Amino acid sequence: MKSILWDKGPVVSRPYIYDRVKQGIIDYPIEKMLQEEAPVLQLPNFTEQFNLFTDASGVGIGAVLNQNHRPIAFASRTLNKAERNYTVTERECLVVIWALNKFKTYFGSRPVNVITDHAALTKLTNGKNLSSRMIRWALKLSEFNIEWEHRPDVQNVVADVLSRNPVGNMDGSQISCVALRALA
């Protein structure tokens, strides 16, 4: 059971431990906690605001679409060789564009709240001295009705785990329940 609590991947420099374990509830049975807190995908309510949590790491990108703190969809993929050479800001922008395109059938032209741990992205439209790639991506982002929100890395845990442990280019139906429980 320890492999579920600790990420032993070569990319991660620190272990990921469930919040309850961090808070000191260590003697609570882990199996029971996994069953109680397993992420269950909900159907979208098209009258409510969509939240898109995104994160990028050196090897992958990850995103979670949710409403009312309940997940609607998870997505992640690995970065190709060229994308691994992007700057941190370019990788963070890449994941936002990729996730918006992946989930645009859910929100269409309605506003979507993009939550990122990279503060520079929230000011992308005001940026000066942008590279040609970032200018193209800023134009692409203008197609969407985005409300930006910055949150520290500790409040964006699921997208962070998805980006550090990408499952490739899968859609949600190919991810097993066990994998989702491990990411919770």
UniProtKB/TrEMBL annotation:
InterPro entries: DNA/RNA_pol_sf (IPR043502), RT_RNaseH (IPR041373). Pfam families: RT_RNaseH. One of its GO terms (molecular function) is hydrolase activity. The keyword Nucleotidyltransferase applies. Residues 45-144 form the Reverse transcriptase RNase H-like domain. The lineage of its organism: Eukaryota, Metazoa, Ecdysozoa, Arthropoda, Chelicerata. This is Retrovirus-related Pol polyprotein from transposon 17.6. Keywords: Endonuclease, Hydrolase, Nuclease, Nucleotidyltransferase, RNA-directed DNA polymerase, Transferase.
